[in-house]
């Protein structure tokens, strides 16, 4: 048991540890609260393992550098928060279209604009999905504890490498700055996924050809000896610009389908106290912690309350909502620290099957367990 | 095209999209001739561009090529160079791409002295969007967005680069091509951030709007206005306002960024490099 | 043709008729025919290659063994 690695660790610190375990060897960032510790720790840790850290001149540049480094073969990450995440959208879109694996950490803070730099919020749910222009694929996952930050950062790299898509690790100020007792897993027990490489036997490499019919083209690195072209313009399978409607449609379809056809692999959620639940609280991130405390209290009072915690935010877990339709559940409460961003998605997914209420807070303060309890009681009166 | 240069082009992508008389083809040709003269390893070259007419150049060139977002070529290039310092990085960019939307990346890449050669296709206009003024459009010139004449003062990109920390700075023109190739060879051999500001012509959007006439007339104007840096040094500033000063402006051997970072890695690893 | 004359080849398909080669040849080797360069004074060519270097469309080859 001596080899057990137990530590008191901050969420942002766990993020870097997870990234290093996943094989991150490049980080470019720009200082912004409340994500800055990620850059600071990366600056110290990366050169020790032969990795590279650079503080760029702005958020746009750090996202660009991450994409460049990934094209040159390194697993790359950046971290930011609200205003910085807005600035990164341009080159996140570039990575989506050019299918360059990368991890973008967004530690949410109060918005809009400069908002509440040091206070928590969950107001970037929709921005993570549609922050950059045009139809594009994206994966967004959101942790609720420090240990989960570690695991999910690894998962973010794995999903990004596997599907050649940017993966957003959607944290919040609470999870990022909270310190918890964490036991890290043994390195040998961690599954690491690396991007699909180009077979050395392949001649006439076409960088966007779906060689394996899984929607995910193998990827060469700049410098490998296989010259290829990458452009943010709509391109054909050879990587060169095209305005052909068929080429365009095929490309967008492949980009979307490589995610949509793998939602079973990508979507993760947690259900607690569900066996007899009649009311289910749908939530994610730090809010799940308050919800869980509240449920424990309410259960002692005999109320049939359960929790659906979304670990994957996008693609949305419609499957989890559909499962609730086959159960005793008749009421949903969507608890989130925003004006109701996830609420609308849950409503659309439920297609009128439940009574659905929002528990929303957007004043820079956490949703407390008592507020969850009060909401459950209030909703029970409507029934 | 000359046989020995063919391997550097994606010949199936030619002819290029540039208008008749556009200088972009001349500059691209000069870059390729400099690469060929130096016998640089083709697979170890990565050419990065932003957005605009000039940024289409990498698509025609048979290297590792990356056509990025508007103004961001140097940011992507920095990531590539950091990730793989063995690669020779060339950024091809326009005056708007480099000095307006990409201005911040430009000064900071220069400041770091990262080993990237930046070639600016400086035709004083946004060509791709059909003729708006850029930070390099001369004061008084006309553009679609300066219908009464441009009141903005234009950058001297070479002075800007030098002030920001670039360690090789030169200006050439599309008229003086043999000299331009020599400047490019020096820039490519230089370790650190190098800038070649190439005075270029856009007959279609700058030329027509400013009633300059044909590509030939625009080229003649460049010839008439150009003086060497050495001659310019002897002239009073007021005599330089209408001149294009060409040649080398600055050269310095200074620590290169990725080499400095290699030292950081060594230090972090307690003197041992276990990469 | 004189033995010493320099071979000049023009790729008519690549030429966009900008006229730069014609205007700036120091030896006036070319004349324009609807914008197209026509070689009229080949013996005057000194193999300076300025027209080749200034051709934006890589349509000219002057001298060398590798003329297509």
Task: Give an overview of the whole structure.
In chain A, helix 1 packs parallel to helix 6 (146-163). The model of chain A has no long low-confidence stretch (mean pLDDT 96). Chain A has helices spanning 11-22, 36-45, 59-71, 82-98, 125-130, 146-163, 173-177, 245-260, 263-266, 287-300, 318-325, 341-350, 369-382, and strands spanning 5-10, 24-29, 52-55, 75-80, 102-108, 139-141, 166-172, 179-184, 229-231, 269-272, 279-283, 305-310, 312-314, 331-336, 355-360. Chain A contains 13 helices and 15 strands. In chain A, strand 11 (279-283), helix 10 and strand 12 form a beta-alpha-beta unit. With 383 residues, chain A is α/β, with parallel strands linked by helices. The radius of gyration of chain A is 21 Å and the shape is globular. Helices cover 37% and strands 17% of the residues of chain B. An eight-stranded mixed β-sheet of chain B has the order 2-1-3-4-6-5-8-7, with helices on both faces. In chain B, strand 5, helix 7 and strand 6 (194-199) form a beta-alpha-beta unit. In chain B, helix 2 (24-38) crosses helix 7, helix 4 (95-101) packs across helix 5 (103-112) and helix 5 crosses helix 6 (157-164). The longest helix of chain B has 15 residues, at 24-38. Chain C is α+β, with helices and mostly antiparallel strands. In chain C, 15% of the residues lie in helices and 21% in strands. In chain C, a hairpin with a 2-residue loop joins strand 2 (30-33) and strand 3. The longest helix of chain C has 5 residues, at 20-24. The two termini of chain C are 19 Å apart. Classes of the chains: A alpha/beta (383), B alpha/beta (275), C alpha+beta (68). Chains in contact: A-B, B-C. The interface between A and B is large, with 44 and 44 residues. Strand 9 of chain A pairs parallel with strand 2 (64-67) of chain B.
């Amino acid at each position: 048991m001596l080899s057990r690695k137990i530590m008191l660790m901050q969420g942002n610190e766990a993020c870097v540890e997870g990234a290093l375990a996943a094989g991150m060897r490049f980080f470019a960032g720009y200082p912004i609260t409340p994500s800055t510790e990620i850059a600071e720790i990366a600056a110290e840790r990366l050169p020790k393992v032969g990795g590279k850290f650079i503080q760029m001149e702005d958020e746009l540049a750090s996202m660009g550098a991450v994409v460049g480094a990934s094209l040159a073969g390194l697993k790359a990450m950046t971290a930011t928060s609200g205003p910085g995440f807005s600035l990164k959208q341009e080159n996140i879109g570039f990575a989506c279209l050019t299918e360059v694996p990368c991890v973008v950490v967004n530690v949410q803070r109060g918005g809009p604009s400069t908002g509440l730099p040091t206070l928590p919020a969950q107001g970037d749910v929709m921005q993570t999905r549609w922050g950059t222009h045009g139809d594009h694929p994206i994966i967004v996952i959101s942790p609720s504890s420090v240990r989960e930050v570690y695991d999910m950062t690894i998962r973010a790299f794995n999903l990004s490498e596997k599907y050649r898509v940017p993966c957003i690790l959607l944290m919040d100020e609470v999870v990022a700055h909270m310190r918890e007792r964490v036991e890290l897993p043994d390195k040998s027990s961690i599954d690491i996924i690396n991007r699909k490489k180009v077979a050395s036997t392949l001649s006439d490499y076409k960088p966007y050809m779906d060689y394996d019919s899984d929607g995910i083209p193998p990827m060469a690195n700049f410098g490998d000896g296989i010259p290829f072209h990458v452009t943010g313009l709509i391109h054909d399978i050879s990587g060169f610009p095209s305005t052909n409607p068929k080429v365009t449609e095929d490309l967008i379809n492949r980009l979307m389908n490589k995610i949509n056809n793998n939602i079973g692999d990508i979507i993760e959620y947690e259900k607690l106290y569900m066996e007899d639940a009649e009311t289910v609280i749908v939530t994610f991130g730090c809010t799940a912690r308050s919800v869980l405390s509240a449920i424990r209290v309410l259960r002692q009072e005999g109320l049939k309350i359960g929790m659906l915690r979304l670990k994957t935010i996008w693609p949305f877990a419609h499957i989890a909502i559909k499962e609730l339709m086959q159960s005793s559940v008749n009421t949903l409460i969507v608890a989130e620290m925003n004006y109701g961003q996830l609420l609308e998605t849950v409503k659309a997914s439920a297609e009128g099957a439940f009574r659905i209420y929002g528990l929303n807070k957007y004043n820079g303060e956490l949703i407390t367990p008592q507020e969850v309890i009060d909401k459950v009681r209030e909703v029970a009166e409507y029934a | 095209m000359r046989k020995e240069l063919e391997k550097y082009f994606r010949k199936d992508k030619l002819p290029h999209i540039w208008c008749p008389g556009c200088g972009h083809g001349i500059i691209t040709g000069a870059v390729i001739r400099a690469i060929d003269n130096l016998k640089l390893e083709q697979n170890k070259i990565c050419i990065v561009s932003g957005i605009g007419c000039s940024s289409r150049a990498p698509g025609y060139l048979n290297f590792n090529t990356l056509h990025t977002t508007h103004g961001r070529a140097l940011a992507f290039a920095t990531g590539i160079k950091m990730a793989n310092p063995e690669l020779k990085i060339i950024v091809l960019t326009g005056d708007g791409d480099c000095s307006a939307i990409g201005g911040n990346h430009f000064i900071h890449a220069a400041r770091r002295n990262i080993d990237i050669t930046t070639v600016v296709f400086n035709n004083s206009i946004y060509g791709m969007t059909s003729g708006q003024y850029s930070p390099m459009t001369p004061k008084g010139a006309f553009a679609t967005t300066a219908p009464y004449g441009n009141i903005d003062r234009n950058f001297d990109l070479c002075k800007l680069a030098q002030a920001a920390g670039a360690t090789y700075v030169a200006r050439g023109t599309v008229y003086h091509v043999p000299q331009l190739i020599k400047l490019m060879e020096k820039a490519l051999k230089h370790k650190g951030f190098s800038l070649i500001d190439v005075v270029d012509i856009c007959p279609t959007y700058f030329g027509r709007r400013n009633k300059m006439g044909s590509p030939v007339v625009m080229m003649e104007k460049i010839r008439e206005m150009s003086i060497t840096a050495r001659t310019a040094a002897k002239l009073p500033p007021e005599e330089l306002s209408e001149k294009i000063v060409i040649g080398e402006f600055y050269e310095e051997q200074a620590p290169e960024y990725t080499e400095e970072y290699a030292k950081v890695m060594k230090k972090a690893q307690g003197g041992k490099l276990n990469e | 043709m004189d033995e010493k004359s320099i071979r000049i080849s023009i790729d008519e398909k690549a030429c966009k008729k900008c006229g730069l080669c014609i205007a700036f040849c120091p030896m006036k080797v070319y004349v324009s025919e609807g914008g197209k360069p026509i070689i009229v004074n080949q013996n005057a060519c000194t193999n300076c290659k300025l027209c080749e270097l200034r051709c934006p469309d890589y349509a000219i080859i002057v001298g060398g063994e590798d003329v297509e």
